[in-house]
Write a structure and sequence with these properties.
elongated; 2 strands; mainly alpha
Length: 162
C-alpha cells in the first residue's frame, strides 16, 4: 500500500495490484518453426537464442530487426552485445555507436551503451578510452555497478600496485 500526500493535505491511498501470473516456460522457449511477426518479437527471440549460445541464429534475428526498423537503437545494441561475446570488437563498437545515435535521452539506457563501449575498449587494451566511457556511464547513471567496477579496474591498471 502506498500513501501519497501533497500540498493540499489530502492523502491518496493506492493499493498495489498483484502481478499477473506469467508462464515462464512461454518466455524462454524458442520455436524454430515460428516466424516472428514484429521487431519486438525478433529481438525477444534473438535474446533467447543469445542466452542459449545460439549466436548465428540470434544474429540473424537481430539483423532482421535492424532491417525492419533501422531507427530503433535496440537491434544495434543487442547485435553489439552478441559481437562482444564473439570477440568481434570492431563490429561491436560500430553497432554501439549506431545505438548511441538513436537511443532516446534516457540516462540508464545511454549508460548501458557507454558501459558496453568501455567493455569493448577494455578487452582491446584501450584502457584510457575505456576509462573515459566508464566515467561517462557513471555520470549518466551513478547506480551502475558494472560501470563502477569497470572504472575501478581501469584505475588499477593505470596505477599498478607496488
Amino acid at each position: 500500500m502506498l500513501i501519497a500526500g501533497g500540498c493540499s493535505r489530502n492523502f491518496t491511498v493506492v493499493k498495489a495490484q498483484p502481478k499477473a501470473q506469467v508462464n515462464q516456460q512461454d518466455r524462454t522457449q524458442y520455436d524454430p518453426d515460428r516466424v516472428p511477426s514484429t521487431t519486438d518479437e525478433q529481438l525477444h527471440e534473438g535474446l533467447i537464442l543469445f542466452r542459449e549460445g545460439r549466436y548465428t541464429e540470434a544474429q540473424g534475428l537481430f539483423e532482421q530487426a535492424i532491417a525492419v526498423e533501422p531507427d530503433d537503437w535496440s537491434g544495434y545494441y543487442y547485435l553489439a552485445r552478441l559481437m562482444i561475446r564473439q570477440e568481434n570488437y570492431a563490429v561491436a563498437i560500430e553497432q554501439l555507436y549506431f545505438a548511441l545515435d538513436l537511443v532516446p535521452d534516457e540516462p540508464r539506457t545511454r549508460s548501458n551503451i557507454y558501459r558496453s563501449l568501455a567493455e569493448c575498449l577494455e578487452l582491446q587494451g584501450q584502457f584510457t578510452k575505456a576509462e573515459l566511457h566508464y566515467r561517462t556511464a557513471l555520470n549518466l547513471f551513478p547506480e551502475s555497478t558494472p560501470a563502477r567496477e569497470g572504472l575501478s579496474r581501469m584505475q588499477s591498471v593505470r596505477r599498478p600496485s607496488p
